[in-house]
Amino acid sequence: MKSITRQKPLEEITKQLEGIERLYLVGCGTCATMTKTGGKDEVLAMKERLQGAGKMITGWTVIPTACDTMTEASLAENNGAIQSADCFLVMSCALGVQKIASYNGKPAIPALDTLFIGVEDSPGLFHEVCDQCGHCVLGYTAGICPITACHKGLLNGPCGGTNNGKCEVDKNRDCAWTLIYDRLKAQGRLDLMKKYQPPRNSQIAPRPRVTRVA
Ligand code: SF4
Ligand code: SF4
């Protein structure tokens, strides 16, 4: 399971950096390396591009996992170069950006957009598996998430546009509710297709979302 990210266009990155000259680059050795958005190669390429745009790079690092508790220790090893920078440019998912933003008060500017939580189907191809909706219905849908797998995010499907198992919105994609039907049928649990799922209740986990583990 990975945070799937996409690099922002250089134009947007430099717009965020208006008035900022000295940067420290941070990549992530886990998800952003796997998606080729913030691993060592991408950090070094970004360094070149920003230097070409007139920025000074005081240093760079690729933290093993930018979102975890070891981030501070990893950054502490590079404090000299970090102190002489005006900000961090972070090439990780938004979790890493937020972690680094709390490190020493220097701004943390995201170089990536965080798209979704996904899994890798084949090298370089990822798909979303969970929208963290706060009320999981996988127990009724044969382990297939209708929110992320169905084009319309239908909790009660199919929509009626299913055609030979393909989705009416994108004919190249399987209809999620056909997949759910087929798997429930194989499990002898087709009665679950008739179970009504109430609309998503955003009050289950109102924002800001917080939970305490006892
Ligand atoms: S129903 Fe889908 S989006 Fe909601 S928690 Fe389950 S897998 Fe995630
Ligand atoms: S055809 Fe299937 S996947 Fe597409 S929107 Fe309708 S129920 Fe969802």
Strand order of the largest sheet: 3-2-4-5
Architecture (CATH level 2) name of the largest domain: 3-Layer(aba) Sandwich
| Attached small molecules | iron/sulfur cluster
Radius of gyration: 21 Å
In this structure, how is the largest beta sheet organized? 4 strands, parallel
Q: Could you name the CATH topology of the largest domain? A: Rossmann fold
Poorly predicted runs are none
**Topology pattern, helix = H, strand = E:** EHEHHEHHEHEEEHH
CATH-level-4 superfamily name of the largest domain: Response regulator
Mean pLDDT across all residues, rounded?
Answer: 93
* End-to-end Cα distance: 25 Å
Given the helix and strand composition, which structural class is it?
alpha/beta
Q: Globular, elongated, flat, extended or rod-shaped: what is the shape?
A: elongated
Number of helices, counting only DSSP H or I runs of 4 residues or more: 8
| Tally of separate domains | 2
What's the level 1 CATH class of the largest domain? Alpha Beta
Into which percent range does the helicity of residues fall? 25-40%
